[in-house]
Design brief:
The protein is of the alpha/beta class. About 40% of the residues lie in helices and about 15% in strands. Bound molecules: NADP nicotinamide-adenine-dinucleotide phosphate.
Length: about 300
Amino acid sequence: MAAQYKILVFGAGGMLGRELMAAPAPNAVSLIGLTRSHADITSPEQVERVMAEHRPGLVINAAAFSNVDGAESEPQAALAVNAQGAGNLARACHQAGVPFIHISTDYVFGGGNQTRPYLESDPPAPINQYGLSKLRGEEQVRAACPRHLIVRTSWLFGALSRNFIHLMLELMRTRPGIKVVDDQVGCPTPAGDLAQALLRLATMVLDQGAADWGTYHLSGPLVINRYEFAQMIWAEARKSLDKDMTIEPVGSEAFAAPAKRPTYSALDCAKIKNRFGLALADWRPELARIVKTLQEAEMRSSV
Ligand SMILES: NC(=O)c1ccc[n+]([C@@H]2O[C@H](COP(=O)([O-])OP(=O)(O)OC[C@H]3O[C@@H](n4cnc5c(N)ncnc54)[C@H](OP(=O)(O)O)[C@@H]3O)[C@@H](O)[C@H]2O)c1
């Protein structure tokens, strides 16, 4: 069947972008992935050029300045991509009359004394430059393109691009013991599951030509801290590692990271379930699959 819908994906070379391009797309959908070399989203002219060239039915923005620590020393660069870049895409979508799905982050929230998952209606209060730049991006999207869905997600992991799991596996393989912070609570999210859900969301919007536009949360269902996440990774990793290893829970002050992280940034995802029927599944089987895939790749590269 000929594809009925053309979706343009910005940030196609990143962690989420790669998963979007690798995900089984619904029959009616053809995906066109763009990297920075095709179009720098900080340039309105480049964005307009690729929009005119491809004439998509919908746009997904997975492009971002995502280096949380780097944004502390380069706040203007983070704003250029995460705020002005998002704004450029939103304006181009509005001008072309196409809906815009923009990806944002749990780091628009600050944690503080928070003890229950954040609702979309909770006031954002970022505590680092990355979170601030993403919040400014949300504002630009809302102002420029009424037909938008801002999807906030959190703690992405997957096999295709380097993330927390890669780091943990490296440390677990090479060290007798590791330290992991237990004062950052959030919702790990498999990038592949998120990608599939986003494509379903896009298809629903294209099928219906309308949606309940606005801001939504979509992340994995488990609320855990990073130490607990590391323990779950180790439970899988040790199945094929012939060694013992200790994981010590520590506070964030044990690492001198340039950017502060929220103590709590779990997202309540009931709204997107109620409005669109979308919810991500328990990701533990997916974690097992990813750890196994990465360990097998490591074994192949070391022989
Ligand atoms: N990773 C997480 O844990 C996490 C958590 C919550 C939310 N999010 C959000 O999820 C989305 C996807 O994140 P991700 O982890 O997939 O990020 P990522 O792996 O860093 O990918 C972002 C992509 O955007 C591209 N990009 C950067 N600047 C650009 C520009 N000026 N023009 C065009 N492309 C540009 C990057 O290309 P280059 O490689 O050339 O720079 C990269 O391929 C982002 O909106 C992020 O804020 C991520």
